[in-house]
């Protein structure tokens, strides 16, 4: 097998990237060819994704990729759950609504009245998040837009549709909708019927590695690329990031740390226990039939929103400076439960932290550095709690915690995660999602052989990783946990 040049499109909540990967036996290099901001827009009270802006960024990136040489394949991954609705002509009916929009939640009680939460979990195995696609669609029932809708496409599938003309639902991302049966791994028609969601909304499923289609003539003309296949990858960014975890064997936990921190283990089969539901564990599908048994921890969002709030008030908002200051203030002056749903919507996170501290009888952080320290301590504490629960609930033992994604650059967070979990943390790669995207393409197109183990071996031999050894006492973390016990 030779070497291939692959474009990996990776869209995050705050920016989109087009990366060029050169992959072959013993080789895996990644370079960024284009990066563009992802700015959600609120109109008439609804928070939405500027999906045409994102698509334009993808086209710019593909054009830039083409200038570097021949492109052999394209893969797309992004955040999950959000969908664009298409009408009978295949035209987009408005912008996909952002998962942080408050309206989705209005349907939760209605859905649960028809399918109680425990029953829902036995079918879809999904942690309750108020924005899971089924709640979003249920909240739209009765609207003109919904009446006109013939199909719902998840964001990466929508972009792939515009590139190729083919409409599919890639299965790792489909598993985040709440409408996929966790046991059969097919759409759950019974669930759709009971919730009055037309079955035709959901396109045929495809597996990572299948070709979705080839660039249309229009797109070829616009990008300068040739007859390039768009290959289904783990189109849920977290699925691609878990491919990009450079683990050896199966005794590992991961923290996929970006805007969210997805914390869990990789399994062969779903765990649909009531205890897992109560602990907020999800059974999302991974590449090669794996299960991502994980919990959504609020993640770097808390830092991002704090910086945004401070910048708006004219306060210092340089992350590196604030983290350096946070490393110098004492640990555990205040900790919060980062999964408090009040942290989900955009807004003044520092004020919300102060409020939660007051409610739990703690002195709120008195400075920006203390607020940042509170966030980082609280994230590490949540990782500790979640890794432990994942082990207990799944029976999988964990020797090492892999921290991948942008958070791998945050040395304070990595060290505190090692201390909190009492396990070594292997940090990196930062671009795990783009790497996982490229690896799945490379195998589909014949440049690599084998399973996740071979892909991960290639990651270990080519990517820069940093090890953090655990230090300090478990008792301090236990005491911190007791302060926020729910
Ligand atoms: C991470 C992520 C999470 C998903 C959240 C919302 O980027 O994809 O896995 O729960 O975004 O879609």
From TrEMBL:
<dbReference type="GO" id="GO:0004370">
    <property type="term" value="F:glycerol kinase activity"/>
</dbReference>
<keyword id="KW-0547">Nucleotide-binding</keyword>
<keyword id="KW-0684">Rhamnose metabolism</keyword>
<feature type="domain" description="Carbohydrate kinase FGGY C-terminal">
    <location>
        <begin position="253"/>
        <end position="444"/>
    </location>
</feature>
<dbReference type="GO" id="GO:0006071">
    <property type="term" value="P:glycerol metabolic process"/>
</dbReference>
<dbReference type="InterPro" id="IPR000577">
    <property type="entry name" value="Carb_kinase_FGGY"/>
</dbReference>
<keyword id="KW-1015">Disulfide bond</keyword>
<protein>
    <submittedName>
        <fullName>Rhamnulokinase</fullName>
    </submittedName>
</protein>
<keyword id="KW-0808">Transferase</keyword>
<dbReference type="GO" id="GO:0005829">
    <property type="term" value="C:cytosol"/>
</dbReference>
<dbReference type="Pfam" id="PF00370">
    <property type="entry name" value="FGGY_N"/>
</dbReference>
<dbReference type="GO" id="GO:0005524">
    <property type="term" value="F:ATP binding"/>
</dbReference>
<dbReference type="InterPro" id="IPR018485">
    <property type="entry name" value="FGGY_C"/>
</dbReference>
<keyword id="KW-0418">Kinase</keyword>
<comment type="similarity">
    <text>Belongs to the FGGY kinase family.</text>
</comment>
<dbReference type="GO" id="GO:0008993">
    <property type="term" value="F:rhamnulokinase activity"/>
</dbReference>
<dbReference type="GO" id="GO:0019301">
    <property type="term" value="P:rhamnose catabolic process"/>
</dbReference>
<dbReference type="InterPro" id="IPR043129">
    <property type="entry name" value="ATPase_NBD"/>
</dbReference>
<dbReference type="Pfam" id="PF02782">
    <property type="entry name" value="FGGY_C"/>
</dbReference>
<dbReference type="InterPro" id="IPR018484">
    <property type="entry name" value="FGGY_N"/>
</dbReference>
<feature type="domain" description="Carbohydrate kinase FGGY N-terminal">
    <location>
        <begin position="8"/>
        <end position="244"/>
    </location>
</feature>
<dbReference type="InterPro" id="IPR013449">
    <property type="entry name" value="Rhamnulokinase"/>
</dbReference>
<keyword id="KW-0067">ATP-binding</keyword>
């Amino acid at each position: 097998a030779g070497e291939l040049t692959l474009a990996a499109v990776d869209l995050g909540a705050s920016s989109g990237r087009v990366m060029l990967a050169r992959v072959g036996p013993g080789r895996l290099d990644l370079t960024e060819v284009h990066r563009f901001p992802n700015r959600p827009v609120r109109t008439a009270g609804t928070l939405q994704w500027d999906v045409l802006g994102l698509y334009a960024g993808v086209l710019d990136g593909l054009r830039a990729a083409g200038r570097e040489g021949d492109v052999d394949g394209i893969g797309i991954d992004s955040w999950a759950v959000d969908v664009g609705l298409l009408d009978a002509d295949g035209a987009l009916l408005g912008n996909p609504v952002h998962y942080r929009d408050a309206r989705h939640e209005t349907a939760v009680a209605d859905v649960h009245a028809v399918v109680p939460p425990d029953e829902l979990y036995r079918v879809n195995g999904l942690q309750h998040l108020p924005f899971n696609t089924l709640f979003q669609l249920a909240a739209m029932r009765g609207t003109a837009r919904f009446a006109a809708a013939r199909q719902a496409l998840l964001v990466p599938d929508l972009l792939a549709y515009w590139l190729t003309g083919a409409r599919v639902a890639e299965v790792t991302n489909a598993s985040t909708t709440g409408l996929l049966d966790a046991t059969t791994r097919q759409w759950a028609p019974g669930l759709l019927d009971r919730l009055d969601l037309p079955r035709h909304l959901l396109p045929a499923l495809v597996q990572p590695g299948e070709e979705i289609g080839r660039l249309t003539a229009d797109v070829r003309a616009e990008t300068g690329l040739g007859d390039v296949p768009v290959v289904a990858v783990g189109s849920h960014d977290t699925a691609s990031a878990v491919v990009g975890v450079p683990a050896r064997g199966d005794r590992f936990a991961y923290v996929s740390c970006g805007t969210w921190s997805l914390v869990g283990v990789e399994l062969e089969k779903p765990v649909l226990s009531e205890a897992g539901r109560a602990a907020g564990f999800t059974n999302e599908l991974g590449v090669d039939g794996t299960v991502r048994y994980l919990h959504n921890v609020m993640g770097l969002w808390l830092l991002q929103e704090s910086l945004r709030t401070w910048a708006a008030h004219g306060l210092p908002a340089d992350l590196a400076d604030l983290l350096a200051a946070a490393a110098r203030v004492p640990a555990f002056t205040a900790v919060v439960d980062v999964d408090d749903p009040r942290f989900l919507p955009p807004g003044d996170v520092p004020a919300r932290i102060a409020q939660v501290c007051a409610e739990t009888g703690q002195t709120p952080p008195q400075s920006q550095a203390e607020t940042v320290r509170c966030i980082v301590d609280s994230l590490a504490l949540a990782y500790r709690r979640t890794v432990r629960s994942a082990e207990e609930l799944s029976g999988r033992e964990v020797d090492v915690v892999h921290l991948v994604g942008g958070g791998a650059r945050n040395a304070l967070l990595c060290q505190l995660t090692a201390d909190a979990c009492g396990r070594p943390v292997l940090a990196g790669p930062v671009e795990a999602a783009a790497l996982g995207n490229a690896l799945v393409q490379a195998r589909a197109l014949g440049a690599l052989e084998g399973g996740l183990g071979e892909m991960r071996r290639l990651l270990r031999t080519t990517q820069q990783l940093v090890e953090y050894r655990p230090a300090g006492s478990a008792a301090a973390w236990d005491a911190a946990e007791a302060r926020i016990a729910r």
